[in-house]
Every structure is written in C-alpha cells, then in structure tokens.
Amino acid sequence: MKILLVNRTLDLYAGSETFTYTLAVELQRRGHEAVCFSPRLGALAERLRAEGISVTNDLATIEDDVDIIHSHHRYESLLAYARFPDKPMILVCHGIFPWQEQPFRAKLNIFRYVAVSEEVKAYLIDNHFLDSGEIVVIPNGVDLARFYCRRPVAGDPKQAIILSNNMPENQRSVVQSACERLNIKLTRLGGVGASAWNVEDYLNQADIVFSLGRGALEAMACKRAAIVYGYSGADGLVTPENFQLFRQKNFSGRTRKLEYSESDLLKEIERYHPSIPQQVFEHVYKEHNIQIIAQCYVDLYERAIDHRAKSLAPTKCFIQTLALNEVLNEAEQSKDALQFTQDQLAEKQQQIGQLQQQNARLQAFSDAVRQTLAYRCYKKFIKPFWDRS
Fold first, then answer.
1. Whole-number Å distance between alpha carbons of 78 and 104
2. Are 215 and 283 contained in the same domain?
3. Cystine design at 253: which of 176, 221, 232, 329 (Cβ 3.0–4.6 Å)?
4. Is residue 348 situated within a structural domain?
C-alpha cells in the first residue's frame, strides 16, 4: 500500500510532525510505502529521508499510484485533494484550537475523520456538525522501541524537565521556583533555541517531566513521572487511577484546567512515588504503542480504499457498458458490410450463370450452322480456293 502523509510542516520537532515521523517509520517497517508531503521542509524532513522515506514539497513529483491520503491540516489537505482528486482521504484532527485543525465544509474524498481523543471527537460533532459515525478515535502513538526506560526513576525526585514548545513564561517560573525549593535540577527542552531530536535521552535523565499531549506520553513511555502542565492549564500528576480520564482530552490540561501557584505545584510534586511510572506505563503499552496505532490506521486505510472502489464501481460498470455497446455496434456494422458483400457476390454469380447460358446457346447455334449444306459447300469449294489466293 502506498500512503501519502500530509502535514503543515516537516520542519520543527513538534507534535504532528513527530507523529508523522513515527507513523511513517512504522508503516515502512510493515512493508508499506510512505510518502511525506509538506510545503515547508526542514530538520524533520531530513530525519525522514535518513530512514529511507520519500519527502517532497512538490506534489507534482509524486506518481499517481498513491492508494490513500492521510492528511493532518486544512490547507495542505486541499492541495493533496487537488493533486489526487480520485483518491480516498482520512483527515486526522490533533487539536481543537488551531485553525489548521478545522475540517472543511466540503467532504472532498474524506472517508473518515480521525480524532486523537474523545474531546476532539465531541468538538467535531458540536462545532462542525459531523455525524458521530464519520469520526474514529485513534489515540497518539509512541515508538516504544525508541522511547523506553533506560534507568529507573529515583526514590525521591532529583531531576526534572520542562518538555514544551509553548509553555508560557509565568508557568515556567512556577515550575522553576518549586523545583528550587525541593532541590530538584530543572532542564528546559523545546521551543526556540532549545529544540532537540534525541528527546528520549533527556527524558531518561529525569525523574519528573512537565509536559502536555505527546510530550507527556513520551515521558510515560520512558517510565518517568508525568505532570500535565502547560498553556491550557494543568491536570497534574498522571496516575493509574486518572490515566483514562486525562487521556480523553489527550493529556492537554483541559480536564481540570488548574492554574498552579508555587505552593500548589509543590503539593503535586510531593505526590511523586517511584512505583507510579511503572503502573502508568502499562496503559501506554496497551493503548499508545505505535504498533497498535499503526495497525488501526492500516485497517482504516483498507476500509477507505474498499469503500472508494465500491463507490466507483457503478461508474466503471457504466463505462464498461458503453464500451461493450460500441463493440456490438461495430460488430453489427461489420455484419451489415459482410451481408452487402455476400449480396454483391450472389449478384455476380447470377450474372456469370446468365453469361454461361448465353455462351451455351451460341455454341449450340454454331454447331448447328456447321451442319448445314451451305457451310459444307463453303468448306469444300470456296475456302480452299480462298486459302490458295
């Protein structure tokens, strides 16, 4: 299967970009061909190419043998549709706020909308009036062969990381102050000047990670204690008891929408226990493993392709019927031409018969003349004399 993965950018190491990378690599592992398109290429595009995955910012360079379009963003979806108007598409919505995540009013060739959480699904129904049956919830996937625990967390937290491209400065200050009070070394990762590809290395050095969404999941995959905290607010420490609740809004901070003071955050950090990350990891392993998520997408791709083929079947049948009628018309014309030729041949044969009859009558007349007295006299007396002269 050849899948065209479409994203707004393939530049920064951000949410949908790293998801595109993770899914493309897994699809390739499964024997599928992934082609990635974005108008803006950069560092992540180079990472994809290093994995042997085709990347382009020009849709005209992609062959027509694409089977399905997997798109993430509004404008880029339209570009892909314009290039491949006959291919089925799925549109994945990673969030509810960015305008790029909002679906078109026109269906294009969208077979299903994919929501990364129940919150996004509800948003699509309530704000874009999509039918529930048009939406499939497929959570974020994490490559557990890359994000895994290399060392257990400490009994008491010694190191922490803020993993975010967009955490407001006032929140960063609260985290900094709380960590200083508890003698926890804090590292900031993400955003301008602090972006890194080898996130898993940094995560494995930490005991606590402050992050949202995909960053929180990657921390949990490495068996780190994750505190959901960022621009949308705070949900707090992820535990086995609240994992499912927080997952419904993709660990966005919008479940509780808390705003921490320094004292509030100190209390949340004090809930830390080294046994929690291991228990939380079990949920990540069962529900967010990219191998499971990729299979969900492959199943969806196959359904979309099959549905598209069936919807085009009547048109193909109509075209085939027209072609068959054309062949039959040509055959009928050939039959008429053959009949005309046969009629002409019969007429010629009749004429030949008539000529043969006339020739027979002339031959009979000639034979009768040769038997007459006058002819015999001519032959005996006149013809010899004529021949001598």
1. 9
2. yes
3. 232
4. no
